[in-house]
Amino acid sequence: MKKIINTSKAPAPIGPYSQAVLTGNTLYTSGQIALDPETMELVTDSIEAETTQVMENMKAVLAEAGLTFESVVKTSIFISDMNNFSRINAIYGKYFDEATAPARETVEVANLPKFVNVEISMIAIV
């Protein structure tokens, strides 16, 4: 059985998908981009601000499922320019304890929704 996770503290889906789905003891999140959940405007002041908004959106989705970043076992990071990797990684790293950080891949892609610079999805365990 699956449970749909939705919170107003993260951007509303802009298509036919859920913010996250909980099935058994595993939470699968959709990718988050840097949309401010209150205004639905993109936060693009800097790659750091954009990444922070993505992580705060993901934090809200995890919280709605009763989880934290400590529950995350896998992340996928999609970026439009690998030259931004170290700056994205510096912000991302603030949300995890390096000793217990999840598995991860980071992939440069040709394009992302709304032409953002970064999108992150996660898998977490209850």
TrEMBL record:
Superkingdom of origin: Bacteria
Pfam family, any one: Ribonuc_L-PSP
Family statement drawn from the similarity comment of this UniProt entry: Belongs to the RutC family.
Name of the protein this chain belongs to: RidA family protein
Organism the protein comes from: Winogradskyella vincentii
